[in-house]
Design goal:
134 residues; alpha+beta; Thiol Ester Dehydrase, Chain A; two-stranded antiparallel ribbon
């Protein structure tokens, strides 16, 4: 199960004066997607950090296709790209409530960093977690 879906509602504070979701919120929704993917795998982001590994974003991309609006229920689909070595990459698609209209798609790439801020290779526990859920 490299793909996971979760939902999120667009709140009033997510929108601009035109009633559309502000563009930076899509990256926040991507974060919700990857957090819930890890949780579905039985490992929270906090547990990863408790093991001394942090996953700062090193790259992000979002293509806006159709605007999300206030009170829309979004489906956030997150897929781990298992082909990336030396980092962790997630692909995202955000759909409307019925899943028929794609609103945005993109990806984030994350370095593995230790407590001292040094970039490290993905640790064995993370590689095993990914392999187990492929």
């Amino acid at each position: 199960m490299l793909t996971h879906q979760t939902t999120c509602r667009v709140i009033y504070g997510d929108t601009d004066n035109m009633g559309f979701a502000y563009h930076a919120n899509y990256l926040r929704w991507f974060e919700i997607g990857r957090t819930e993917l890890f949780r579905a795998w039985g490992l929270t982001y906090k547990a990863v950090e408790d093991k001394g590994i942090f996953l700062p974003a090193s790259e992000a991309h979002c293509k806006f296709i159709y605007p999300a609006k206030y009170d829309d229920l979004l489906i956030i689909e997150t897929t781990l790209d298992a082909n990336v070595k030396g980092a962790v990459k997630f692909d995202y698609s955000i759909f409307n409530e019925d899943g028929k209209k794609i609103l945005a798609e993109g990806y984030t790439k994350h370095a593995c960093v230790d407590k001292k801020g040094r970039v490290v290779r993905p640790p064995e526990f993370l590689k095993q977690l990914i392999a187990k859920n492929m």
